[in-house]
Amino acid sequence: MIHTVLSIFLALWLAALALPLGANAATVITGIVRTQSGQPLAGLALLEKGEIHNNRWDRGTLVDTAGRFRIELGEGGQYGLHVYSSGYIYKPNAVRVETGKTLEVEVVLVPEPTRANDPVIKRVEFGSSETGKGKVMIVKMEVSDPNGILGPQVLAFNAATGRAFAMAPPRWVRSLKSNYPDGVYQLDADISQSPSDPRDWHFVVADHKCNTTDILSFPHKPQPPRVIH
Amino acid sequence: MVRFIALVVIVLASAGGASAGAPAGGLAELVAEGERWWKSSPDPQDPVACSTCDPAETRGWAASFPKYRPLPPPEDRVMTLLQANAEAVQRHYRLPDAERPALAITAYLTSHGAGTPISPGIVAGQPVFEGRLRALAESVARGERLYARWCRSCHDAGAVTPAALLFPAAGNGQVESLERFLGRHRPELPRLGSDGQPSTDVIAFLMSRLAGRPVSVAPFSVAP
Question: pTM (2 decimals)?
Answer without folding.
Answer: 0.84
